[in-house]
Amino acid sequence: MVNTKFNDTDRAIIKSYEYAVKGISNIFGNACEVLVHSLENYENAVVYIENGHNSSRSTGAPITNLALELINGSSKTKKFLEPYESKFPNGDRCKSVTIPIKNNEKLIGLLCINFNMEVSVFDFAKQFFVNDNIQTDNIQTIDDNLENYSANIEDMMKSILEKNINSIILDMSIPNQDKNKEIILKLHEVGFFHLKGSVEYLAEKLQISEHTVYSNIRKYTKSN
């Protein structure tokens, strides 16, 4: 099969998946092999791979026979995005999914996720707990790390305010006349003002002018 002719945009798109490979493997642990095949070079298709010990592969490995079948549309039992079972070279069963990477309608790569089904439930579960070697003083609580999955932008802004300003309001060491400034600086620090309408929303909640909010943001940016 002839390799796909790439341009700079194709290469940039493939490059952008490097962090996706690392992120997926980090959350699912050592039993989850994640890799990207670039179709620019079928003979050395694997350009990014994590947990390659599962299949004994590393970067530079060739494309697989099944990947070729998917690209050709010749597989009668397996399709892009649909999970399927296979086996690693050592005989371990794995559950896999192959996700097409495209530049518009041009197929340029494959994101492949292969999960080792032979891993014990205990070993798999361990991946989701904090490493025992980490100092407990440096560990944040679940509430500290809680991510808010808001359905709309107003709920998102409300959630950020509730999480970040209550401690300032209740802090008796901060003079009342400085509390609004400290709130604005804290919200700037956590990226609140990247949200459209955030200045107007905060000004209304604090009952201050939008000019005051903008003024404090400028001062904070300049001083940092």
Automatic annotation (TrEMBL):
Give any Pfam family that matches.
HTH_22
Q: What is this protein called?
A: Transcriptional regulator
Residues covered by the Transcriptional regulator DauR-like HTH domain: 161-218
This protein's species is Brachyspira catarrhinii
| Ranges where the YheO-like domain occurs | 15-118
